[in-house]
Amino acid sequence: MPEIKYTDANPGPCCLKIEDMIDYARPMLQRWPPFFRYTLGEEIMNEMLLMLRLATKARLRYMNKSTLQDLDTSKEILKTLVRSANRTVFTDRNGEERRLLSNHSFDVWSGYIEEIGKLIGGWINAVSGRTNRGDPNK
């Protein structure tokens, strides 16, 4: 099977999935109250952009195992930040308590993170030359 060449027109599945996640999250983050938008929201956005940078670096490098490990770490940090945003409660202008993320938004966002994690894991296994066929010790 010929090796697929990723270009600007075809950046690869991991970069595309991260871009989709950013496109999904950006409007939500912009609707958050200013305090959360400029603290937690900015941290989340920076982490997603870092993931996109790392995925692009890994795609362009020959020896990219350490970059992929950094990408995996960044994904775990993002997962923690999104979970924190889901638990954050604030009082809106009407005096009602609300959460930053609805259950649906959290589920969709977590789904993106999970899919990206699977892509990263497969990428790391491909670079390491490992095949995991159900044996957790391999």
Structural account:
The chain is mainly alpha-helical and 138 residues long. The chain has a single domain (13-127), classed as 23S rRNA-intervening sequence (de novo design (two linked rop proteins)), CATH 1.20.1440. It contains five helices and two strands. It has helices at residues 13-31, 34-37, 40-60, 65-87, 103-128; strands at 89-91, 97-99. Strands 1-2 form a two-stranded antiparallel sheet. Strand 1 and strand 2 (97-99) form a beta hairpin. Helix 1 (13-31) runs antiparallel to helix 3, helix 1 runs antiparallel to helix 5 (103-128) and helix 3 (40-60) packs antiparallel against helix 4. The two termini are 25 Å apart. The model has no long low-confidence stretch (mean pLDDT 88).
List keywords for this structure.
single chain, 138 residues, mainly alpha, de novo design (two linked rop proteins), two-stranded antiparallel ribbon, 5 helices, 2 strands, 67% helix, elongated
